[in-house]
Structures are given as C-alpha cells and as structure tokens.
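Question (not urgent): is this output format expected?
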Amino acid sequence: MHSFRGVQAWIAAVPALALALSVFAAAPEGAARSRGQKVTVPAAALMERIRMGFFERRWQQALEDCDEYLRRYPSGRNAAWAAFYRGRALSAVGGREAEALSSYRRAAQLADDAKELAEEARRSVCQVALPLAAGGRQEGISALSEALSDPSRPVRVYAAVLASRLEGSSLLPSAEVVLRREVLVEPNADLRDEMTLALARIDPISLAGSPEAGDGERDRAKGAGAVTAGARWVHLRITHRSRPAEKVTINLPLSFARALLDSLPHKTREQMRRQAESQGLSWEALTTALDQLRSRSGPLLHVDDGDQRVEVWVD
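Got this back:
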C-alpha cells in the first residue's frame, strides 16, 4: 500500500521535475548547461569578474571577459566601463595601443552621461596615442590633435603636455598655444611647473633665453606669455676680460628651475646629491634656497678672479 502511494507520488512529480530540468537545461544566466556548452554569466557577475581580473592584473582574462560583455551587452549600463577596462587591459598587454585607443574612444562615446568616466577615457586616448604618434602612426597624431581642442580643459592640457615630447611634430604649435594660454590661469603649482617644462621642451629659447640672450630677449619671452604674470627669474652671467667675445648670459624662470630639478630621474638626483656633498654642499640647502628665492630679489653670487666674473641674481 505504501509502495503504491510512493509510485503515485513519483508519477505526480514527473511534470514538475521535467519542467525543472528544462529550465536548468536552458540556463539563461549563470546556471550550468549541458555538456560541451559554455556557462552564461549574468551581466552583473561578468562585470564583477572583469573588475577582479583588472585589479589582480590578470590582463588576458580581463580582456576576454570585456569582449564577452561587450558582445552580449553592447548597450548595457556597464558597457562604457567594459570598454574602458578593455582599453586598460590592452595597454597593459603591450603592443596593442591602436586597439586600446579604439576601446577608450568607445568608452568615451558610451559614457556620455557619465562625465568623469568620459573625460578619463579621453585622457587615456591621449596616453596611448603618444607612442603611436611618436612612431609616426596617423591615428595617434590625429587623436592628440583632436584632444588639443577638447572641450575639457584637463584633457587639452594633458594632450599638450604629452605632445610637447614629440620633437619636430606638427602638433607642437597647437600644443604651445594651449600651454601658453592655460598656464596663465593654472592654480596648482605642480601642474603649472609641469606645463612650464612642456613649454621649455617646445621652445626653450623663448622661455629661458639663449646663451647669448639678454634682458631684451627675456622681456620678449615674458611678453609672449611664456610664464605666469609676476613670475620671478634667476639670471647667470659669465664674462671674461681677456676674451670679451666669450660671454654667457642665461635667464631662467625660477619656477622652471625648480620644476627641472624635481623632474630629474631619481638616479640622476642621487648622483647630483653625491657630487654636491663631495664638495661640501648641502643638497637640501640647494632645494630650500630655490623655494626661498620666490620671495627674494637681488644679487646671490658675485665672483671675480681677475679675468672671469660670475654673477647670479634674481628679479
């Protein structure tokens, strides 16, 4: 009797069991499928896996997951992030800058409503465009050219600073225009120094003066807007009584001198520190002095050995 009821119960359960098995076999998101078929991961879980791959630096896995997300959810709410992470992964892999550039552009387009992400994507376009432009690749040159007229000021400035490293590039005049205009209103001292260095790379003569440049050249550089209004200058003049033609006059913006010192590679700074200390000079005193010169004017050094005269002063 009990066994008959058990059989009846199993028979009654067959339709429900069949339905459950059919749902399991279909497995629209996250469930296992029949043997030989790939598991489908829900959008949220896939995006989380992308983030984990990115932060754990598993670039190839992150790249594959980004491709899967963009293939399955091209208009999903995280599609912009998937395209952005794809660009990051391609950049990290190396040698795929052109693909990374395309991914960042796609991220910027998809992130229209997310201003910060869109701006960061456009900055990343500049970053991967630089090695392409340096290699003469037109897509890199075009990307930086577009960024120099970007509606976002941070993107324009970033593009101009990067373009300043492309010696002889057709982008330099446009980069110089951006830097000369924006350095005048830049409130951040560190960024202002970086922009000053970029201007020096583009046109060092107009910024610091040539070895033979005097005050007239310096004034023209000031008038051209090379540095911020009220900027201070450090001057070096070396003359020889016996050889009057051998004269050196250097006019250097103080902010540039400090920025140049800060921008040196760590190894180079350490070598300079050792050389200075071997001659009884304090490196810390030197850097402190550069900072103090911002509020000081007048002569700093005057050495005359009878034939050669060295003068250093600030105004």
